[in-house]
Give the backbone structure.
Amino acid sequence: MAFERLPKSVLVVGAGISGLLAATVLKEHGVEVTVLDKGRGAGGRMSTRRIDLDNTCAYFDHGAQYFTVSDGDFAKYVERWLALGIIKPLNGKLIRQNGEPDLSSETRYIGATGMNASTKYLADSLRVFFSERVDKLSFEKQWTVETDKGKTFTADALILSPPVPQSLELLKKSNVPLPSDVETELATIDYHPCIATLLLFDSVDPILPASGIWFQGEPIAWASDNLRKGISPLPTLTIHAGPMFSAEHWQTTDSIIVETMCAHLKDWIKAPIKLSQVHRWRYGFAKSVLDKPFVMVDSPAPIVFVGDGFVAPRVEGAAVSGIRAAHALLEHLRA
Ligand SMILES: Cc1cc2nc3c(=O)[nH]c(=O)nc-3n(C[C@H](O)[C@H](O)[C@H](O)COP(=O)(O)OP(=O)(O)OC[C@H]3O[C@@H](n4cnc5c(N)ncnc54)[C@H](O)[C@@H]3O)c2cc1C
């Protein structure tokens, strides 16, 4: 369906799933949208890491591992991605640490080439600037955003999709005040950290007996085999430490983290490790979320907070937050 152009502009901070879906909905309705992300590519916590080797590449889903869908509005996008082959159902079983199979009947989706596939697809149709960290916001007739590269962008409204503590920090350092009740409510959104260990093996076979294994939670919460998932031509493992281990070992050196994770997985890791990396997700999972899809403040001009701090602390929660926020902002801009 073609929509009339709405002569308004919106800046979206963050090219994760919530920011990109919000931007997509706005663009579909004729709004001029610009997305800025500090990262080198789309996805945020749905990123896929690529390591270039001599003749090939190894891939790791190092944040979100799969997503599920129950919301009708999100489902429309998911159906489109499925039809285009951008995502696929997760094939290969998931098991628990004791070997029990996963009996859930819910369909779990993964990106066909890695978890960032759907966000890459969305970003390709939008005006997105990567490697631009938003450092300052100010308002004079319009919002102005300054990035670490010294670029400025202006717009009638802002959508902030980083984890809420980071968005609040940005407002604070920009001296942009929020109504105190809104600030208090947003300040309740807090996150667990997650340390991800990435291992590449010198082997031609998968390492795990399943695509993914749920562990007891501490020190390891999850391990997945990216070769079995079908996103890496080489056997690679993604291991997520539990929130307690991650908080306690935030400053621990990478080599000790790798050693600890491998010691706990010694029953599975038989092949020699060719390469290891550690990624620290400071804002991994929201501990609790607000029971509303977004928060909008409209003075001096709209600022909308979105992401996985609303609805549910996972991909679908963030997606629904972005979609609902964009529709609400459209109504506001049309009024
Ligand atoms: C280890 C791990 C495993 C997970 N596993 C699952 C799973 O299996 N299933 C599931 O459903 N969910 C999972 N999740 C949760 C899921 O990844 C998130 O809920 C979801 O991706 C959040 O999307 P978002 O758009 O809200 O935020 P993000 O993806 O974090 O996007 C925010 C974006 O804002 C950008 N940004 C931040 N500050 C700035 C700034 N100042 N300037 C410019 N850009 C900025 C960031 O670079 C980022 O790209 C997992 C998360 C982690 C960390």
Remarks:
- The chain is about 25% helix and 30% strand.
- The longest strand covers residues 273-286.
- Residues 13-19, 36-39, 44-46, 63-67, 133-134, 161-163, 166, 170, 194, 196, 240, 281, 284-285, 307-308, 313-315, 318 surround flavin-adenine dinucleotide (CB under 6 Å).
